[in-house]
Design brief:
- It is a single chain.
- The chain has 477 residues and is α/β, with parallel strands linked by helices.
- The chain has two domains: 238 residues, Carbamate kinase (3-Layer(aba) Sandwich); 153 residues, VC0802-like (2-Layer Sandwich), CATH 3.30.2130.10.
- 44% of the residues lie in helices and 18% in strands.
- It is built from 17 helices and 14 strands.
- The strands form two sheets. Strands 3-4-2-1-5-7-8-6 form an eight-stranded mixed sheet, with helices on both faces. The protein has a six-stranded antiparallel sheet with strand order 10-11-9-12-14-13.
- The chain starts with 6 loop residues before the first strand and ends with a helix.
- The C terminus is likely disordered.
């Protein structure tokens, strides 16, 4: 695709629920005429809609997909789908105020919800004959349902912008009623092929239906993968993610609004460490796509459009220093076997069990006879992993406990003595340290602590490495 100079910008779900507040300052601002364009916006579903369609991301409360998959009660998923329709109408009712736009949006929701309802009914009837298995279609159903949320928000945003005099075009990549079997590149190319970026503002769905199946590999991270692929394929000058907060040195709600600092500039290496710790600036696969395409990423606060936010690229740090402190609740999975030393296979067995149960490995340590994996999983899942390992090594001692893993991260931590200073600070704060480790690349130091001490440790380490160090630099200046 040959496009003029442009940016590709994404608005997240929480910000989308206030998209009417973003039209003036962020999307239109002081732009007039051609200055309104030269941008492609990729949107997530309105806040909470995808949770209702699939399952709640944090609590696991079942949505339409989970209820349909269980199939214990037809009324369960039917009622859930009706609740989605009502929630969609509430969402666009909060951002649209013109009666004509509201009526058009209501009709759009009715068409998509009823279409999905008919599709699920037909699939149930087909599978009742016994020659077809519903389990074989569940991933397709998950993709179908996911696309409803992004299609709705993109359509509504287009209506909203058109009402404000912007020539916005709804670009639906969800594959709704489309029989073409396209891969992701073909789907994006087909959606954008006849758009004039000098005179139109494309509002693109964050979900893209494609032969590869985005949810198979990325699940709920699909919108950022769509966004990064669009930026790479169109040769964007910059990819921008508008969130409801700045990318900061720590969670402001945890360390205090006055202590947290906007990072301002970092690189993809740090972004990867954040993703590994569950604090995603961007999905790691999406970051990889942008990095390989040479497209820098910018993370901004959508509600502070005058602030440039934080740029993420491949540039090294100007000087060593800590950029962010973050923590994550994990399970420490310990495998101890006195006879392990010098024998191969223990690590491979543990990794196979973790992979089989789809467990995310955050970190790992080992010595002569012990291997510890710090994993993001429930204790129930950890016990299943333990059972698999014990079946192979019945003499081994395998256990699991919940801990907090707190990471101090920066592009260059050389000469910062993070491990030494961190241990001293935690000791003075009377925080027990279970384990600590620093890799040779000097980008991250991790401290394993009792689960209940995680938040206190983040505040403690942030005070030492961000608040105090920056205060010292300011005093010197």
């Amino acid at each position: 695709m040959d496009f003029p100079r442009h940016t590709v910008e994404k608005i997240g779900g929480t910000s989308m629920s206030r998209v009417n507040e973003l039209v003036g300052p962020l999307i239109v601002g002081d732009r007039e005429g051609p200055a309104l364009y030269g941008r492609i916006f990729v949107v997530s579903a309105f806040g909470g809609i995808t949770d209702l369609l699939l399952e709640h991301k944090k609590s696991g409360q079942p949505g339409v997909y989970a209820l349909f998959a269980n199939d214990d009660d037809d009324h369960g998923w039917l009622d859930a789908l009706s609740r989605v329709g009502a929630a969609m109408r509430d969402a666009h009712g909060a951002v649209l105020d013109h009666p004509g736009d509201l009526g058009t949006a209501d009709e759009f929701v009715r068409d998509r919800i009823e279409g999905a309802r008919s599709c699920l009914f037909d699939l149930q009837r087909l599978c009742s004959f016994g020659h077809f298995r519903l389990s074989d279609q569940m991933l397709v159903i998950r993709e179908l349902l996911s696309g409803l949320g992004e299609a709705h928000s993109a359509f509504v945003t287009s209506l909203l912008l058109q009402r404000h005099g912007v020539d916005a075009r709804f670009v639906d990549l969800s594959g709704w009623r489309d029989e073409a079997d396209l891969n992701l590149e073909e789907r994006i190319t087909a959606g954008l092929k006849d758009i004039d970026l000098t005179a139109e503002l494309p509002i693109v769905t964050g979900y893209a239906q494609c032969a590869e199946g985005l949810m198979r590999e990325y699940d709920r991270g699909y919108s950022e993968v769509t966004f990064s692929n669009i930026a790479a394929l169109t040769g964007a000058q910059e990819a921008i993610i508008h969130k409801e907060f700045h990318l900061s040195s720590a969670d402001p709600g945890l360390v205090g609004e006055g202590k947290a600092r906007k990072i301002g500039h970092t690189n993809y290496d740090v972004a990867d460490q954040l993703a590994n710790m569950g604090m995603e600036a961007i999905h790691p696969n999406a970051a990889k796509i942008l990095r390989r395409a040479g497209v820098p990423l910018r993370v901004t606060n959508a509600f502070e459009p005058g602030d440039p936010g934080t740029r993420i690229d491949d540039a090294p740090a100007d000087a060593p220093g800590v950029e962010i402190v973050t923590g994550l609740g994990v399970v420490a999975l310990d495998l101890f076997e006195q006879d392990m030393v010098g024998v191969k296979g223990y690590d491979a067995t543990a990794l196979e069990a973790l992979k089989r149960h789809n467990v995310w490995i955050v970190s790992k340590t080992s010595n002569a006879n012990t291997i510890t994996h710090y994993v993001k999983a429930s204790l129930k899942t950890a016990r299943r992993v333990i059972a698999d390992i014990e079946a192979v090594y019945p003499q081994a001692e395998v256990g699991a406990r919940q801990v907090a893993l707190v990471a101090v991260i920066g592009r260059d931590l050389s000469d910062q003595r993070v491990l030494c200073r961190g241990l001293q600070a935690l000791h003075e704060a009377d925080i027990e340290v279970i384990a600590a480790q620093q890799g040779p690349r000097n980008v991250e130091v991790q401290f394993a602590l009792p689960r209940e001490a995680g938040d206190k440790a983040v505040r403690c380490l942030h005070d030492v490495f961000v608040a105090q160090d920056r205060a010292g630099l300011a005093a010197v200046a």
